[in-house]
Design a protein that fits this description.
About 40% of the residues lie in helices and about 15% in strands. By secondary structure, it is α/β, with parallel strands linked by helices. Helix 6 (about 155-165) links the parallel strand 6 (about 145) and strand 7.
């Protein structure tokens, strides 16, 4: 299906809530599926689900019979497949995967854009191996658990660190050490004391639970390494947005409302995230993320251009967005001052 100009989409949506001007009119879907991941970095999505905000805004738009489905994944690979196939409408992935998807799908019927950022939270590379005191101490026999190879923010942060330590031609220095594991499983593995599993590149709140264990050391904090950056994005296809303008707008409005809820009371939002995700961790452990300077769940993208430039420099992608907003739907980031 040919892509529409934004002005055409806005005019059509405003006039009739559907696509027009000589293009076949699509009946809006009456079912939408959204996918999230584990961790407090995805808190806006958890609040959207817990409060049924997508249904609320769909009802306001006159889509009163919409069914909203939620799925949770350990990593991005299956979600991306679902997005491209159309079995999932909105997914959540880190900025590196966002940029890769944007580059790969540009100009295709399934062109992907970012609906909005989910916020900024730090990640920590943690080890309990007494031999490892810095990144330079890793051997070829060591292993590091990450949610996804190559495309996760965790993996790219390690490539960023390797390029700084050893030069750009050595950016994949740590890649052979990486193993894929969900964040909850990785935290349990670190705390179990089992030999052979001694390092994880973790995300909150799991990293704070790990640090309560014996002899844990933080080797790298990504906020100290890179400064605050968007941790993950909500992602959709142009096809979904063009064929379902009211439903797309409802999802975007639900995301903004969830972020407003978090902004008004961070501590209450943390408690709601715990309830929504059935977290068994103590509140004090989860809330430690609030003490990290730069942590936020706001709507403004951060660090997109910096991450994109690095990915081009080391050959992860051929082209990066010229400006941060190039990978986002224009109407969802209008007026924001990202970077």
């Amino acid at each position: 299906m040919a892509r529409w100009k934004l002005s055409t989409w806005i005019a059509a949506a405003a006039a009739a809530g559907a696509v027009s001007f000589g293009t076949p009119v699509f009946a809006e879907k009456n079912e939408v599926t959204l996918a999230s991941q584990f961790g407090i970095g995805f808190m806006p999505l958890a609040i959207m689900e817990h409060r049924d905000l997508v249904k609320k805004h769909a009802d306001k738009a006159g889509l009163t019979d919409v069914k909203v489905n939620w799925r949770r994944f350990n990593g991005s690979d299956t979600m991306v497949s679902g997005l491209i196939s159309g079995s999932v409408d909105v997914i959540s992935v880190g900025v590196p995967a966002s940029i890769m998807l944007w580059e790969k799908t540009k100009g295709t019927p399934q062109e992907v854009r970012m609906l909005g950022p989910l916020g900024a939270v730090p990640m920590m590379l943690i080890t309990r191996n007494p031999r490892i005191k810095s990144l330079k101490d890793f051997s070829r026999e060591d292993r590091i658990a990450v949610p996804n190879l190559k495309t996760s923010m965790n993996a790219v942060a390690l490539q960023f660190a390797a390029a700084e330590l050893y030069g750009k031609d050595k950016k994949f220095h740590f890649d052979d050490l990486l193993v894929t594991m969900s964040q909850p499983d990785a935290a349990n593995g670190m705390l179990s004391g089992v030999k052979g599993f001694e390092t994880v590149f973790s995300t909150p709140p799991f990293q704070y639970r790990i640090l309560e264990g014996k002899d844990m050391k933080v080797l790298l904090n990504t906020f100290e390494q890179m400064g605050p950056y968007t941790y993950a994005n909500a992602v959709a296809t142009m096809k979904f947005r063009n064929e379902n303008p009211k439903l797309f707008a409802a999802v975007a409005a639900a995301l903004r409302e969830a972020q407003d809820i978090i902004e008004k009371d961070h501590k209450a939002a943390v408690r709601e995230w715990m309830t929504a995700t059935n977290s068994k961790l103590p509140y004090e452990t989860v809330a430690k993320v609030l003490d990290e300077r730069g942590t936020n769940w706001g709507p403004t993208p951060q660090g997109v251009e910096k991450i994109g430039k690095f990915m081009v420099d080391v050959g992860l992608v051929k082209t990066a967005p010229a400006t941060w907003d190039a990978i986002y739907f224009p109407e969802t980031v209008k007026g924001l001052k990202g970077n």
